[in-house]
Amino acid sequence: MESNHSQPAQRGAPLIRPTPLQGEDEGIDLRRLLPAWIISGVIHVVVLALLMIPQLGSGRAEAGTETAVIESSMADEQSMLDKNLVNDEIGNDPDLPTNYNVDRIEEVSVPGPVNPNERVGILNAADAPAMTVAPPPGFGGGQGGALDDPNRTGQGGMTGFAGGMGGPKLVPGGMGGRSGATREKMIREGGGNTRSEAAVAGGIKWLARHQALDGHWGMHDFHVHGRCNCGNSGGNHDVAGTGFGLLPFLGAGETHKGTGKNSLYAKTVERGLKWLITRQGANGGFSENGYEHSIATIAICEAYGLTADPILKGPAQRAINRCVSWQRVNGGFRYAHPPAADHDLSVSAWFVQALKSGHMAGLTVPNVSWAGVNNYLDLLAVPDGSAYGYTDNRPTPTMTAAGLLCRVYMGWGPRNVALGKGLEYLRKLPPSPNFKHIYYYYYATQFVYFMAPVNPEAWDQWNAKMRDILIETQDQGLNPDKRDQKGSWDPSGDPWGGQLGRLGDTSLKILTLEVYYRHLPLYRRELGALKDEAILNK
User: Fold this and answer.
1) Which end of the chain is more exposed for a tag (fewer CB within 10 A), N or C?
2) 213-232 average pLDDT score
3) Where are the alpha helices (DSSP H) in 73-209?
């Protein structure tokens, strides 16, 4: 064994031999290693310098090209979340003949060279004078985007984005603001911020936790389905509860066809929609109670309008047809289906929202129904049309807010004198922590928001109070005995709190916080292709 170990040492001596240090132990002489370290260091420096030469040369050869690489990190994202996203910019310039609002926010950034000297337009195209081109098919006012005549059918898609792409219609008052990029823009322009969106997210999370296994939401027994001790049960109205459960998800752009960022609650929404469809009768009704049917109709129509899912078209149209047959001769609505003849503006306002949702989704709503609504509003309005009553023309704040919003849906422009007087009437009862009435706030907030183009000061003042009150009163789960209430709101002290309960109250408050993007502004040139006829004609 010893002879075998000695033979390799005789064939070749090592480059650096180990030498004994002091004592009997063996070690390495550091003085002998120093030259090798120096040589190795010099070689590495030379190699690195050679690798850098092509990059430096490339930079000098292409002096006119700037390489822009956008990097993101968790720190960058947190920095954005920490910022208050309030923005006082007014958006597109309405005086420009072509000012398309087509900005988009992608989930990823692709690095690449940016050449500031490059021509804008088609690559290698011949020189030509600058000119404004016609908007693409689908941007007009007619069905399918007819460009010259709103009564003519154009070549654009009858559903989906302008131009025929899949998705919600980008029409004034429509649901296109719920998409990712447009939603972020509407939040900034409308006065929302990261805290208001966090409140929406918390509320939606609470709703998802309290959905029944079969897909419905119970206003009176949500705590049973959430397996918790959350308080404040409401009325026994499962159809309305399911509508209230679905609407905040749909308001935030969450659908059963969720993609990208909007996919977390796809199954939640799908289960709710399936439950509603199974409850729909042969006559198209979801319930024999007017409140319940109209609220469920809004949900099913919004789901169809956001996705154009053909499976939902039939149920949604049948629900609209039932709404149409529910209307009284005077144009109003009430709890029971005709032949009952009583009426009130509270129920009627939900039916108007249902008909409007169906119309925005591209469903058929007869003109006679709209004429009936206008007739009914005339019956309940004070002589100048600025305030409204419950069953007659003795005005109340809540019914005035509901009536004014219905007038907006019926086409009254923001410069209408009656709407202006109505706005001043509502401003005398602004949001206050001492006045709990979410039913009033739900309608009034939407109306004041739609009036912002002509009275931005009124909206700024209203929004600052309403937004912050809702944020500050949301349950943060600090009570150790009621931690499951985190994300919801307490309806105690609200005149509607007994019927709405915690679930209905939470739903309406989320919808109020979603006002910035739930419906695109009715009186702004969102697409930039058409003048605002509502403003011009009022």
Assistant:
1) N
2) 96
3) 74-82, 180-190, 194-209
What is the DSSP pairing of strand 19-20 with strand 66-68?
unpaired
Q: How far is CA 206 from CA 19, 217, 484, 488, 501, in A?
A: 75, 12, 8, 6, 14
For the chain, the farthest-separated pair of C-alpha atoms sits apart, in whole angstroms, at 121
Report if residue 92 sits inside a domain: no
What's the sign of the alpha-carbon dihedral 61, 62, 64, 66? negative
pLDDT of residue 260: 59
Q: How many domains does the chain have?
A: 1
Exposed (0-12), middle (13-18) or buried (19+): which is 279, by Cβ within 10 Å? Answer: middle
CATH code for the domain in which residue 400 is found? 1.50.10.20
> Helix H segments across 361-488?
367-380, 397-409, 417-427, 438-450, 456-473
Query: Residue 136 carries which DSSP code?
Result: P
132 vs 429 pLDDT, higher one: 429
Across the chain, what does the average pLDDT equal?
76
Q: Domain for residue 498, yes or no?
A: yes
pTM for this structure? 0.68
Q: Which domain holds residue 387?
A: 176-536
Burial class (CB within 10 angstroms; exposed 0-12, middle 13-18, buried 19+) of 411? middle
- Which residues make beta-bridge pairs with 388? 381
Q: Is residue 430 part of a domain?
A: yes
